[in-house]
Amino acid sequence: MQAKKEIGLAIVGSGRIGTLRGKLAKMHPSVRFIAVSDANPEAAEKLAKTIGADYWTTDNLEVMSLPEVNAIDIATSEHEHTVPLLAALDRGVPVLVEKPIALLEEDAKLVIAKAEALNSDLHIGYSRRYKNRYLIAKEQIVQGRLGVITGACARLYNSRSQCFAMLKRNKGATPVVDALTYYVDLMGWLLADNPVVEVFAKGQKGVIHAAGYDTEDVTWAILTCKDGAVVNLGVSYALPEKWPSVGHSARVELLGTHGTLLINDDHTDQIMQTDIGFPHVYLSDHKIETVFLESSTPGDWALGDFLGPIADETRAWLDYLSTGKPCNLAKPRDAIRTLAVTLAIEESARTGKTVYLTPN
Ligand SMILES: NC(=O)c1ccc[n+]([C@@H]2O[C@H](COP(=O)([O-])OP(=O)(O)OC[C@H]3O[C@@H](n4cnc5c(N)ncnc54)[C@H](O)[C@@H]3O)[C@@H](O)[C@H]2O)c1
């Protein structure tokens, strides 16, 4: 039995995911101290009250520098990761940052340079890795049951309501860079040590463009990996406003020399119809009457417990910190590669040209 280290956690960014991480951390037996910050004082105070945190502030540096803090979660909005993340790395404690590592490659490079110079313990929360069906898929690959992966595909759908919410936060948080990114990471993890070297993509504009955003309704990409394996990735966040999914509707398929694995992650196997209306995790004023249960991307509350990928991912990271048990979260090199692939998909769709990537 390994000794358990006590954890003092600083959560920077007290929005939806910061709140969820905070609630989950509060339930973890090794977490003895939680302090939170947010640029918006109401958000920080609300989270502190909700979870009974030990301290709250609007000053990110202050919360990260508290003597009790020996781990930091950066849960700020996508375009606000870099500054607090660089400061967190300077503290020399383990850090978890939410996906994507950054929206711009130059920001991600600054982070990687610092993390490597300081030999930082940095993980990135690509929580698809902690959805049971994908972990079990990884196990089949590790056991060699698919043989050599020669091809794969993943496509991701969501409602336009969710797309507008993301783009309103930041125009760079597009369906490709902010959502398909999970499946780029997933493929990178499943097809380990076989980085993408070539990207070609096409997209078509429609309702999202008509609403004033320079973003496609549908984007399809063909990626070629170093050994020649071909991966087809696609995303549409333009499904009707009241599409029954409250998160990702996805399909993932893996084709190998010795096996094939098909994963239906559309959640159409659990359909509820309710006249009362079902709340959306991200959109407070959005109610749907038909819902695919378990389609919420982070997971679901059930009788006081939170079930699903973010619950398992948070627990895995905290277990890793307290006992040293290895976790499967993405590392900085995975995250910068994933960002480069998503940006290449957008560039190729925009220019009509193939983008070549050098594996890092
Ligand atoms: N893994 C998942 O399932 C999952 C799901 C949703 C979002 N995310 C990621 O989590 C992160 C946060 O998303 P969210 O949905 O919680 O967003 P949110 O808008 O609900 O919360 C972000 C919070 O950060 C605060 N903030 C922004 N800039 C700040 C700064 N410089 N300093 C301090 N606070 C600042 C905002 O005031 C806000 O309260 C994003 O990177 C997002 O992509 C992950």
Automatic annotation (TrEMBL):
Q: Which residues form the GFO/IDH/MocA-like oxidoreductase domain?
A: 136-261
Would you say which domain of life the source belongs to? Bacteria
For this entry, the protein name equals Predicted dehydrogenase
UniProt cross-references to PANTHER family, sorted A to Z: BILIVERDIN REDUCTASE A
InterPro entries in the cross-refs = Gfo/Idh/MocA-like_OxRdtase_N, Gfo/Idh/MocA_Oxidoreductases, GFO_IDH_MocA-like_dom, NAD(P)-bd_dom_sf
Gfo/Idh/MocA-like oxidoreductase N-terminal domain location is 8-125
Q: GO molecular function: any one?
A: nucleotide binding
Pfam families on file: GFO_IDH_MocA, GFO_IDH_MocA_C3
* Organism annotation: Polynucleobacter kasalickyi
